[in-house]
Amino acid sequence: MDIENMIAFVTVAELKSVSAAASNMNHLQSNMTAKIKKIENHYRQQLFFRSTRGMELTPEGEKLYRQYKKLLLLWEETEQEMNRRELKLRLGIMQSVISENITKAFSDLYEKYPNMSVTLITGSTEKMEEELIEGNIDLAYTFGKSDLQQLHYWPIGSEELVLVGKRVKTAASLAQCLQSETMLILSKNCLYASILQRIYSAHGIHLASKTEVGVLETLLRLASLGMGVALISKTNVREFGVTDFMELPQEYRYIDKFLVTRTNYELSPLERQFFKISQSL
């Protein structure tokens, strides 16, 4: 089984879509389907089934996914060692994206490559796109995108958003949660802020005030004290042990995640390792 087919299988499994995986890998959808069929024929197993959430792995598919992830990581390590590429990461991450997965990926790579150089910039999606275009970083994790021609956006799944605040659990409705509440945001260009603004507008609610906090932990603390409401990812809810949150209506609930690079930029073996480790944890 060649590396290209392994990558195709893993990409379909992670994006839960043949068409999205084909776009990600710059392949025709028919070619991607043929690769998956070839793998299933090789192992004489059904590895995917279709559900309302997209392409889901069967139990045998789950086994193969774990094995392929190990093999691909070993392949990236081999590429790094044999090609002797410079050990550097220049990365941009939205503050709300920084999670245990990201920090664990840094830890694992520092253990392998103690001399690795890391440049890390945080900010909004718009800031990450600007830093990429100016050449200050080489890749970025973002929620949402601006579809700039100078950049290439690799879809890497979606994230569920929730509303946090002291009174959200006892409120009878989303509209009641928002009424007379201060909007807590990380920055004025934060994508979450624009989504929350749309929710206010859709419910015909006048925004009482807006407070820019800048630090995620502080924002969550203020929300827990009843000083306002905010949108954050459900991943952050789990990581920080937040219990006062409300799920959003379907039209606002999910936001797309992207790995962004400059157009025609080729990821180094080290960058591919970082991406695969952070996605597999």
UniProtKB/TrEMBL annotation:
Which superkingdom, per the lineage?
Bacteria
Repressor among keywords: no
* Gene3D superfamilies found in the cross-reference section: 3.40.190.290, Winged helix-like DNA-binding domain superfamily/Winged helix DNA-binding domain
Keywords, alphabetical: DNA-binding, Transcription, Transcription regulation
Segments forming domain HTH lysR-type: 1-58
* One of the Pfam families matching this protein, by short name: LysR_substrate
Which GO terms of the molecular function aspect are on file?
Answer: DNA-binding transcription factor activity; transcription cis-regulatory region binding
Q: Which CDD domains match?
A: PBP2_LTTR_substrate (cd05466)
Give the record's family classification.
Answer: Belongs to the LysR transcriptional regulatory family.
Q: What is this protein called?
A: LysR family transcriptional regulator
Q: Species name for this entry?
A: Paenibacillus cremeus
